[in-house]
Amino acid sequence: MNDNMPQNDITPAGWRLTLPLANLRGADRTKSGSWAARIPDRAAARKAIPYGASVPSAPLQPLTAEELDRLGVPPGGVKQI
Known about the structure:
With 81 residues, the protein is α+β, with helices and mostly antiparallel strands. Helices cover 17% and strands 22% of the residues.
């Protein structure tokens, strides 16, 4: 897995994933950019983000509950940011 996060950190409230434009083709390019998922489980968040599982080289970045509130991501939700 390419998601580098120290194991002693507090469990995040969610994750941010930035999908590189180069990995997507045609109309799928509109899905590139950053996505936030208010799903604490890293693997579940990667699967919930469009094309997240298709681009395993894109690292997930932890987000706090405050950051997710500011971004307007609902509980269990995913939002393009």
